[in-house]
Amino acid sequence: MNGKFSNPPMISVRNLVKNYGNSQALRGISFQVQRGEIFAFLGPNGAGKTTAIKILTTLLRPTAGRVEIDGLDVTIDQHAVRERLGIIFQDSSLDDQLTVLENMLYHAVLYDVPRRLRGPRIEALIEVFGLGEYRHKQVRRLSGGLKRRVEVARALIHNPKTLFLDEPTIGLDPQSRNYLWAQVKQLNEREDVTVFLTTHYMEEAERFAHRIAILDQGNIIAQGTAKDLNMQTHSDTLEDSFIALTGREIRSEDNGMIDRMRQLSQLGKRK
Questions:
Q1: What is the pLDDT of residues 129-139, one digit of tens each?
Q2: 198: domain range?
Q3: Which secondary structure element, helix H or strand E, spans residue 17, and what is its range?
Q4: Are residues 144 and 171 in the same domain?
């Protein structure tokens, strides 16, 4: 582990199980995410990623096992855990009828940011994410890339210790993707924000994540740095390692995910 990280971990997952009737979505997975780490959580569709993320973000209760965020049990200290999290899901949660500023103010009130701190914090984030000229525009009038910037900025208003990014750049053009990642990386390095990432862009995980865990059929089948995984599978790229670990046959629940990954990877290389 890189010397920049310190114990105790920001996220600790031990023997996590989730059953839906007779179906087992998670089969006793365990992993840790260190403070200040960018951690990528990868897996084919149907692997259990969504279930795990919902449990980590207090939206779903586990069947068994223990999950702690910043030392707090997610099933007992739900409110305190949520205060420590910034969450950006794949589908936008912005109010399209409100302006950028109104969306951010609403979030600040929702998370009990003291009134005297709201304005300065919002203005600082608007500047960081290059949203100054859009502050009074309705969100519905913004491009997809700008909307993503607003979502990330809004999620940081209450100074979360951990930022969950679920497919944060899907559908964005390369320039928007690069801008967004530059800001996230800066937040990680300057403010020591822990980042928990899911993505189908393999090059994003390979480039930005300090460590990667690969989930398949409810089990973590590998974890380590991109270099570790490539060495383990004798592969040149993370995409090749992913396919080697999860299998070359596209299962019915994958809906062509491997082909989609390759298409997304090619899109990201176009300038």
A1: 999 999 999 99
A2: 1-84+162-175+186-271
A3: strand 11-20
A4: no
